[in-house]
Amino acid sequence: MYTSQTRQTMPAGSVSPHVEVHVAERQYSVLVVDDNDCLRTTLTLLLETLGYNAENRSDGWDGLRWLEGHPRVDLVLLDQTMPGMTGVQMLQRLRQTRPLLPVLFISGDLDSIPHSITSADPRVGVLAKPFTLAALTQAMETLLGAAQPTGQSEAIPAPCL
């Protein structure tokens, strides 16, 4: 479980003059799925800087294919509005094989994410774009804390933020 005892605090000046960031002691694995190249790349680099093992994919289909071959993923950061498959559609397919994998929607279009999906499952969170680094890390910590600590998930200052 991800608690205050299992993290280190990075000095606020290390990333931004107004943000205190928590660096993961255990290397969690995070998949970022977003069609915005700038945001996807920035989030991936930021997560790696914070101690996460981060991968990224540009759409839901590619994200699902990647997850098939990588069972050790602890969290998915998922955009809602993407070509080919929405984030909700990806979540529905993902739940067929990995019902316990935490998913954090990161979207500027929260109205298109049904409240029934986010309120029914404690492993699903929502974060509105644009968001702060502090809001992102807090949302991730909450979802990682709600996940079962099995070690394997069951079968930001940038112009683009």
Structural summary, described in words:
The chain has helices at 37-49, 60-68, 87-97, 115-120, 133-146; strands at 7-10, 21-24, 29-33, 53-57, 75-78, 103-107, 124-128. The protein is an alpha/beta fold. The chain has one domain (21-146): Response regulator (Rossmann fold). Strand 6, helix 4 and strand 7 form a beta-alpha-beta unit. The longest helix has 14 residues, at 133-146. Residues 1-19 and 148-159 have low confidence and may be disordered.
What key attributes describe this structure?
161 residues; alpha/beta; Rossmann fold; 5-stranded parallel beta sheet; two-stranded antiparallel ribbon; disordered N terminus; disordered C terminus
Average pLDDT figure = 80
The tally of domains stands at: 1
Give the biggest sheet.
Answer: 5 strands, parallel
Low-confidence region ranges: 1-19, 148-159
CATH superfamily: Response regulator
Instruction: Please identify, by name, the CATH architecture.
Output: 3-Layer(aba) Sandwich
Order of helices and strands: EEEHEHEHEHEH
